[in-house]
Design a protein that fits this description.
The chain is an alpha+beta fold. The protein has one domain: Hypothetical protein (Archaeosine Trna-guanine Transglycosylase, Chain: A, domain 4), CATH 2.30.130.30. The chain has a six-stranded mixed sheet.
Length: about 120
Amino acid sequence: MKALSIRQPWAWCILHGKPVENRNWWTSYRGPLGIHAAKGMTRDEYEACRDFAASLGLALPPMADLPRGGIVGRAKLVDCVTSHPSKWFFGRFGLVLEEVEPLPFIPLKGALGLFDVPEGVLS
């Protein structure tokens, strides 16, 4: 299975209704996707996302409560688009996600781009 590392709190937002992940690169991959919460997150990043999410009616948990450095969920990557009706879309490309489900936290080192999850981690 592939996974995508996403900085918090954006990874949390995906698990709670954000249907598209913004990227500056395109992918032809379609299929199951682990949602990996990256280790890095600054206070400025958190506050910017918190304010944006609040404008859409979504309240984030406190910064300290967001798990980082592991798998937090899974989804199905169904498309890569250059436009999307969601207010969450504002990137060059959008990875459209469906069948999103949270998972218990699984510590795992992330990587850039789509990366392979070791066999048995998400079975």
